[in-house]
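Schema walk-through. Below, the input block comes first and the output block second. Nothing else is stored per chain. Lengths vary across the set, and this one has 175 residues.
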Amino acid sequence: MESTDIKYLENGFLAAGRRCRLIDVALGVLIVVLALIWLPALAISCIQLGNSASFSTVFYLLLYGVLVFGVMGTLKLIFHGIVKGESPFSERQADRLRFISFLALMFVFLEFAFTWGIAYELIPQAGYSVLINYGGNDAAININIEMLVFSAIMYSLSAIFRYAALLQQLSDETV
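--- output ---
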């Protein structure tokens, strides 16, 4: 390899490392900001549990927040690992991507269960029946197709990253 090629690769690695560090820091800040919004909202909902908030609403808010923090925290772990020198194509990173796909799938199930309960008035005290189907008269169950597709994409990426990690391991052992 020529020295210009090596210099080009080194510059590319440095730039990618800076971008990963920036994303790692941005995710950390975003997690803190989300916590500062979510925790008071959850506390207020718990305080109003008997008055205007129902148990199902508080439970939904709690689970939704846990899933959001799970996804954000796992993404932060992915970028933090890369910043610390961990290969992006490792089985650990593939496991993290697969975990994100699982959490995204849980978003789909959570939203489905919550809207199903409201649509069929299993929890009429939630008081959201007016919002079903964008204010229409027919009850509808929400299936979040976007999150379902996101889950499938993340699962596919985890399989690709796992395959790349195994190829890297095979390459390291044969050299």
